[in-house]
Amino acid sequence: MPVTEAFKTKLKLYSQACIVITFLVVLAIAARSFIIPLAFSALFAIVLNPLLRKLEGWGVPRILAIILAMLSFTLILSALATYSAYQLNLLMEDLPSIQKRVVELFDQVLANLESVLGFELAERNGSMWKDALKRVAPFFGDFISGTSSAATIIVQIPIYIFLILLYKEKFLRFLGEVLTDSSTAHSRVSEVKKVVQGYVSGLFIVILILAILNSLGLWILGIRYALFFGIFSAVLTVIPYLGNFIGGLFPFLVALVTKDSAWYAVGVIAIYAVVQFLEGNFITPNIMGSKVSVNPLAALISLIIGGQILGLAGIILAIPLVGIIKTMLSHSETLRPLVILIEDESS
């Protein structure tokens, strides 16, 4: 089959796109300490922009409007962070007793196995389990204290948000110069803002509903720290497919080691299974709809790549970033076929 000029043009453009993507990936890895807070700041700035426009419409000066918008957002996050820190402190105090209960539980399991098998298991196996379990509390403590290393990132985000909102017109003018058409720039920016705002606002509503359902179910079972675990597991839904499993693992373990019956742990599994079913089939489809519309395969690949490049932050940012990329690709005659591989036609 002869190679046409159109095919050569497409091949050249795809090659250039691969070079640009490779450069951006290398840049993201090399400058991740700068890219991560900047990316989150851009998302938050887009979400806060409608409130900023409303305040400016009421005659509030730009700088004061930005401060008020950021202050309202910060108060909500501070309240959640304060409560989470309080609950984490209580959980850390209970870790020694939980660890002791885990060791006793494994001793009981080993004793039951010995009675079933008819012979005594090697003591070193039991010691191995106990030694492993004794490392759980220090490891968990190191994990919690290790989050303090993110303090520098958290400090940078408000600064970036303020500056992005303050100079947002400059970014729009820049895109207008690049695209050589200001109306096209406005259109592209509006589409990106619609995708991000729809995704983030929908995600907040989904998290709120899941937090209520998770907390209510755990509270009915009498699981300790029900509200904290309910909110924690709901927030982890920002990690698609894996977040619910990770979030349910902690209350499952707490139920297993703090309750007299293993049926409480089974109850936790049942609660999270029901909530996951409702979230996947009713809550998210009806609230999120086609705001991002990324099929599961593209989402899974983006999560893996995002995690490899930026770690946990990359996993959280992967889905909205793919949604933005899909929106931009839809306006390219040559790259538009890639949208077929990304979009979820069932949305």
Which key terms come to mind for this protein?
single chain, mainly alpha, 14 helices, 0% strand
Beta-strand share of residues = under 5%
Q: Biggest β-sheet, characterized?
A: none
Q: Rough shape?
A: globular
The SS-based structural class is: mainly alpha
The Cα radius of gyration reads 25 Å
Helix content: over 70%
Number of helices: 14
Uncertain spans, ≥5 residues at pLDDT below 50? 143-149
What's the rounded overall pLDDT mean? 77
Distance between the termini: 38 Å
Kindly state the number of beta strands.
0
Along the chain, the helix and strand elements come as HHHHHHHHHHHHHH
Textual characterization of the structure:
- This protein is 84% helix and 0% strand.
- The chain is built from 14 helices and no strands.
- The longest helix has 56 residues.
- The chain is globular.
- It starts with a helix and ends in a 5-residue tail after the last helix.
- About 2% of the residues have low confidence.
Helix-strand layout with pairing:
Blueprint: H1 5-30, H2 32-57, H3 62-117, H4 123-134, H5 136-146, H6 151-166, H7 168-179, H8 182-221, H9 226-235, H10 243-258, H11 263-288, H12 296-310, H13 312-329, H14 337-342
Helix pairs in contact: 2-3, 2-6, 3-4, 3-5, 3-6, 3-10, 7-8, 8-9, 8-11, 8-13, 9-10, 10-11, 12-13
